[in-house]
Amino acid sequence: DAKTTQPPSMDCAEGRAANLPCNHSTISGNEYVYWYRQIHSQGPQYIIHGLKNNETNEMASLIITEDRKSSTLILPHATLRDTAVYYCIVRVRSNDYKLSFGAGTTVTVRA
Amino acid sequence: NAGVTQTPKFQVLKTGQSMTLQCAQDMNHEYMSWYRQDPGMGLRLIHYSVGAGITDQGEVPNGYNVSRSTTEDFPLRLLSAAPSQTSVYFCASSLGVQETQYFGPGTRLLVL
What we know:
heterodimer, A: mainly beta, 4-stranded antiparallel β-sheet, 9 strands, B: mainly beta, 7-stranded mixed β-sheet
């Protein structure tokens, strides 16, 4: 699976959009971009995933650049409950079951 | 749906003791797995199962055993606990190998 690079931390004001970047310059054509988050002491929570088109669900939006070398997770209206570590994972949807979690981005939403 | 459940939430063991961490899911998922997470690190895959009666090793399988007798349950056994196994253990399940994985709340294990 391709390696991802995320900033170690970022702050966001409550009620504002949080834009979380992820670089995956070595991504290959059959690799998906997944986002999970882990709120302190809890299990990882799936947020969203995509291949090349932008995706949106009830939690977030995922914007993938045309060359697929980077992506941005957007939390449209951040709340204090969104404070968590956010993981960007690139994964081939194949018979390899493993999810490779890196260090992620620690997002702190401030009132 | 309860989703993925894990018991116990917290456990203290002495070196050499054995125990079983329980994991159950009620979503009829075929795929289940165990990860461990050490402080400041990402999750590492211990063992996984692609269906009842079928298991395989992940990245860090040594010291752990698993079995999958039913679709719902996937217990993780520590045969002889060591301090290096102090960690938080997460169980996950998914409908298929390519599908989204859903995680349980975790079991915090301390081995003295």
